[in-house]
Sequence to fold (74 residues):
Amino acid sequence: MIAYTSQDETTNICDVFGSGTVNNGCGFEIDRLIKSGGVVKIEAAIIGVLRNRIEPLCQQPVQWHRKSLSKHRC
Fold:
Protein backbone atom coordinates (compact mmCIF):
# COMPACT_ATOMS: atom_id res chain seq x y z
CA MET A 1 0.00 0.00 0.00
CA ILE A 2 2.79 2.42 0.91
CA ALA A 3 4.87 1.58 -2.18
CA TYR A 4 1.85 2.08 -4.45
CA THR A 5 0.79 5.37 -2.85
CA SER A 6 4.31 6.81 -2.78
CA GLN A 7 4.59 6.49 -6.57
CA ASP A 8 2.28 9.49 -6.98
CA GLU A 9 2.05 11.09 -3.54
CA THR A 10 4.66 12.47 -1.17
CA THR A 11 4.62 10.38 1.99
CA ASN A 12 5.84 11.83 5.27
CA ILE A 13 6.63 10.63 8.74
CA CYS A 14 3.42 10.35 10.78
CA ASP A 15 1.31 9.57 7.69
CA VAL A 16 -1.31 6.94 8.45
CA PHE A 17 -2.43 4.51 5.74
CA GLY A 18 -5.64 2.58 6.08
CA SER A 19 -7.71 0.31 3.95
CA GLY A 20 -11.00 0.85 5.71
CA THR A 21 -12.69 0.64 9.08
CA VAL A 22 -15.75 -1.01 10.52
CA ASN A 23 -18.68 1.13 11.69
CA ASN A 24 -17.59 3.35 14.58
CA GLY A 25 -13.98 2.23 14.09
CA CYS A 26 -12.80 5.66 13.00
CA GLY A 27 -11.71 8.16 15.66
CA PHE A 28 -13.46 10.94 13.76
CA GLU A 29 -16.77 9.07 14.00
CA ILE A 30 -16.53 8.55 17.76
CA ASP A 31 -14.83 11.90 18.56
CA ARG A 32 -11.57 10.25 19.75
CA LEU A 33 -8.45 11.59 18.07
CA ILE A 34 -4.89 10.33 18.50
CA LYS A 35 -2.83 12.50 20.84
CA SER A 36 0.84 12.58 21.76
CA GLY A 37 1.56 9.90 24.35
CA GLY A 38 -1.35 7.74 23.22
CA VAL A 39 -0.98 4.13 22.14
CA VAL A 40 -2.42 2.78 18.90
CA LYS A 41 -3.13 -0.96 19.03
CA ILE A 42 -4.12 -3.20 16.14
CA GLU A 43 -4.98 -6.83 16.80
CA ALA A 44 -5.49 -9.52 14.17
CA ALA A 45 -6.54 -13.06 15.00
CA ILE A 46 -3.68 -15.55 14.65
CA ILE A 47 -1.23 -12.82 13.58
CA GLY A 48 -0.99 -10.99 16.90
CA VAL A 49 -0.97 -7.44 18.25
CA LEU A 50 0.88 -4.37 16.97
CA ARG A 51 1.26 -1.46 19.42
CA ASN A 52 2.82 1.94 18.74
CA ARG A 53 3.15 4.90 21.08
CA ILE A 54 2.53 8.30 19.52
CA GLU A 55 5.54 10.51 20.16
CA PRO A 56 5.55 14.33 20.18
CA LEU A 57 6.51 16.04 16.93
CA CYS A 58 10.23 16.65 16.40
CA GLN A 59 11.45 20.22 16.32
CA GLN A 60 13.76 19.43 13.39
CA PRO A 61 12.39 18.46 9.98
CA VAL A 62 13.00 14.90 8.84
CA GLN A 63 15.27 14.54 5.81
CA TRP A 64 14.02 11.91 3.36
CA HIS A 65 16.01 10.62 0.42
CA ARG A 66 13.90 9.21 -2.39
CA LYS A 67 15.32 6.11 -4.08
CA SER A 68 14.53 5.01 -7.60
CA LEU A 69 11.92 2.23 -7.74
CA SER A 70 12.81 1.21 -11.31
CA LYS A 71 14.90 -1.78 -10.13
CA HIS A 72 12.08 -3.07 -7.91
CA ARG A 73 9.14 -3.05 -10.32
CA CYS A 74 7.50 -6.37 -11.16
In short: The chain has a mean pLDDT of 79. The CA atoms of residues 3 and 73 lie 10 Å apart. Helices lie at 2-6. The radius of gyration is 16 Å.
